[in-house]
Amino acid sequence: MKPNALTGLALAAMLAAGGAGYWAGHRGLAVGWRDWLGIEGSLAANEPAGTGPIIYYQDPDRKPVYSAQPRQTDDGRPFTAVRASQDVSFEVKPPSEERMAQADPKRVLYYRNPMGLPDTSPVPKKDSMGMDYLPVYEGEGNEDGVIKLSPGRIQRSGVRSEPVRRQNIVQTIHVPGVVQLDERRVSVVTIRADAFVQEVAPITTGDRVTKGTKLARIYSPEISTAGAQFITELNAAARGVPEGGARQRLENLGVPPEVIAEIERSRKVPLTINWSAPRDGIVLERSVSDGMKMTAGGSLFRLADISTIWVLADVPERQLAAVGIGAPATVRLRGRPGSSFEGRVSVIYPEIAEATRTAKVRIEIGNRDGMLLPNMYADVDIGSDDPAPQLAVPDSAVIDSGSRRVVILDLGEGRFEPREVKLGRRGDGRVAITEGVAEGDRVVVSANFLIDAESNLKAALGGFAQPEAKP
């Protein structure tokens, strides 16, 4: 309030309450109404000229008579124009425009409807649902598609955002598997000539054997005949006659090398021959008994070396592209909780099972202590090779509707923008972004579905609403 205006109001109030007599009697001042008006007029004359638009018109004698339009008194004098800077108000006035510009370089142009409707207001207000109208600042460009939320709504909705970073994404595939024998380490002990089993060693299915262990003692007339011919050729060779093919025939009949060497040393053909294990392993099958007659090609024993074993995992067709040769794998036995084995993918079978739509993936594992046994069930975790760092965001940041993948960018100051992206590999709760965002962009990781729903609503309303009118 202007000091002169306050003085005039105070004196007018005192005169109205009989203060004029008080002043005239006690101060000895013969101040009449005309003189008083002259004093007030001189005070008014000293006031600086008003600025701003004309607010209203007041009686020239400062009487409480006002008019919205220009008018005159009964004696023909015009009412005084009161401008914005001369208006008397007992309310606390807002800071001047200059001070506001210093405090906030952005000037609010108007307030727009929070739901995107073509409704604006020059002053703050709320819509029918109690939502605050959003300020539009000077210098802001066209922000079609940008959602603006008040700080209160952001806090109530639990909106959180994180920056986009470059990271190594290791994708882990969890699949079932079955322990199988290494086909390259399975041996079948056979005889290549008709023979009789003289004696079988006390070895049964499941026993462990080592290379050279005696399995059975057999008699074969065909092998004995070949052995006698071999001795004849050896004796002839001593007289300078070249050897024939008796040695080769013994080898073709599967006679062990140590037996051939013993015949060559002693020049005698043994009546029976000991048949030995060709490798270390366990006995998978025993097909022979004492006194049996074996025909050529008959199987005596079936052995398997289980020092290295296979695990065949069933990988779904949709995840097969993430599996590569040499990828690390961890195998956990269902029958032995707490135990785990490390290996690597060696083969991806080139066939998809029609019934299950899965492919077999072979993992080679060293079988320490022989804990892995054929046909055991296992849980397999197959990881990807260490890829180059990629732009990645948490899985919760991506809204996947099936036809599009969207993230919500946090532009700051309560502004959010949906952005369509292209996705890469997934793993460890994160997903790679191959297109649509840049490193350092902030994406919403919590309550993004609410912002996306509001964005879709705004777009739907904007489809049939009139363009926003700026006051």
From TrEMBL:
Keyword Ion transport assigned: yes
Gene Ontology biological-process annotations: copper ion export; plasma membrane copper ion transport
Presence of keyword Repeat: no
GO MF, any single term: transition metal ion binding
Domain (CusB-like beta-barrel) ranges: 308-384
Domain CusB-like barrel-sandwich hybrid, residue spans: 186-304
Domain CzcB-like C-terminal circularly permuted SH3-like: 391-451
Keyword entries, A-Z: Ion transport, Signal, Transport
InterPro entries named in the record: Beta-barrel_RND_2, BSH_CusB, CzcB_C, MFP_Cation_Efflux, RND_pump_MFP
Gene Ontology cellular-component terms listed: membrane; outer membrane-bounded periplasmic space
Stated family: Belongs to the membrane fusion protein (MFP) (TC 8.A.1) family.
Name of this protein: Cation transporter
